[in-house]
Amino acid sequence: MTLSLTTPRPLIAGNWKMFGLETSLDEARAVAAAVASKPPAARVALCPPATLLHRMSEAMAGEGVLVGGQDCHQSPSGAHTGDVSATMLADAGARLVILGHSERRAAHGESDALVSAKVEAALAAGLEPIVCCGETLAQRDAGQAQAVVTGMARASLPASLAGQDFAVAYEPVWAIGTGRTPTVADIAAIHAALRAVLIERFGQHGATVPILYGGSVKPDNAREILATPEVGGALVGGASLKAADFLAIIDAA
Ligand code: 13P
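That is the input. Now the predicted structure with 1,3-dihydroxyacetonephosphate docked in place:
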């Protein structure tokens, strides 16, 4: 990936989803050690389950790996059994938070309006949101991918993001955990459409917001995906659980 002075560093973020016990911190430590010994072109983040957040933040302290949450509640505190607020994520050492992941939209019924409210909460807590959007296979087959993704982005990105650090992640639902990826041309087309939305919403700032690709990013396809126009990084699921695979993807940026 060629960097210019106006292009922010790409972001390679690992989403551990509901995987990871204390022993898994060894993988994070291996990533941190490699990043410290050879600083990569990309910013690097790991988003473990909430139970590991604090321990991972402590293990990564002073290293070149940022730690993030995978979701937050839209309120800073309250009677919400089982939920975790953005303020709590920040208190545990998180710097970023993934919001609107398709697994949460599908399994927890999260609407664009709720995702937008969560983005507001993340900003209020000083977290950098990574806002996800992506189409299902049925929507792609019906020729609706671009309309669906840009619609989700418009409705999930509140105006208060203006001037703030954030990223958007394009994650086609059918590419997540399946080993299937869109063609590079299809990724480029959706990312170009998302870039247009970001510029329409946020002007010049929108031209610099990283747009990550996510969905079956692996060491063997990362270089080609990351070299695609308007791809400003990757949101990596399964391949972020093993330090060697994640480091190979970081190297490709
Ligand atoms: P996989 O890389 O396992 O396909 O997961 C992608 C994802 O959902 C990242 O948020």
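Confidence is low (pLDDT under 50) at residues 1-5.
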